[in-house]
Amino acid sequence: MEANEPRFTHDVTVELVKHSASDADVLFAARVSTAGEQSLDELKKDPERSKGLINFLMRDRHGSPFEHNSMTFFISAPIFVFREFHRHRVGWSYNEESGRYRELRPVFYVPGEDRKLVQQGKPGAYTYVDGTPEQHKLVTETMEASYRQAYAAYREMLEAGVAREVARSVLPVGLFSSMYATCNARSLMHFLSLRTRDENAKVPSFPQREIEMVAEKMEAAWAKLMPLTHAAFVAHGRVAP
Q1: Which domain covers residue 100, as residue numbers?
Q2: Is residue 143 included in any domain, yes or no?
Q3: Number of structural domains, the chain?
Q4: CATH number at residue 105
């Protein structure tokens, strides 16, 4: 495939690129309140007691001990996903690739066959159902044709000497962008409570599927780093402390 030939995908990329995050960080922060500085091997000494403390903190929403950690993710997703993502501001830091300083790559989002296409209901009470084969065909063909036209217009302006920051105006929100996103466990839990749908959640959430795909991959990576914290989050209704 040539460098400027559009590529279409329905997947997103989430990579945990660095972290300083463990259940021990929660215990370390929590126990300073009552017992002074604690050894970070406390979790190994008394795992049941440590598990109980984390569950207590989660249940009673003592949130600050969950902030003493850090995770940085590399995320590649459509621009419309990042527009929703950037609504999460407390406890988050972002750096996104710039269309002013680099030529944007022609990678575009097209829904997969399992993406529900039809919206039913009224505002506040929407449901989504599967589309017909004809609708999926229409969506795929229309999106791909639109993307090709938009990227050809972008390239035409660049080749004519138009500045990247001007030429990018013709590109759609289905274009993929990439960013580094850094958060702590507390801010991530708040994000997950809003951007994933789970039948066991105390507060229902109705995320757009594409940002939920990102959230699911972030949650899987976090669960491996902080299994006790993640288990407590799930056990107490997926409500951020």
Answers
A1: 7-111+174-235
A2: no
A3: 1
A4: 3.30.1360.170
Who contacts 222 (Cβ-Cβ below 8 Å, separation ≥6)? 21, 71, 185, 188, 230
Q: Which of 49, 195, 197, 209 is labelled catalytic?
A: 195
How far apart CA 146 and CA 216 sit, in angstroms, is 29
Question: Does residue 31 have a known ligand-binding role?
Answer: no
Does 232 appear as a known binding residue?
Answer: no
Residue 57 maps to a domain: yes
Query: What is the chain's pLDDT, residue by residue, as a tens digit (241 residues)?
Result: 567 899 999 999 999 999 999 999 999 899 876 655 554 566 666 678 889 999 999 999 999 999 999 999 999 999 999 999 999 999 999 999 999 999 999 999 999 999 999 988 887 778 889 999 999 999 999 999 999 999 999 999 999 999 999 999 999 999 999 999 999 999 999 999 999 999 989 999 999 999 999 999 999 999 999 999 999 999 999 999 9
pTM above 0.90, yes or no: yes
Does residue 148 lie within any of the structural domains?
A: no
Exposed/middle/buried for 17, CB within 10 Å: 0-12, 13-18, 19+? exposed
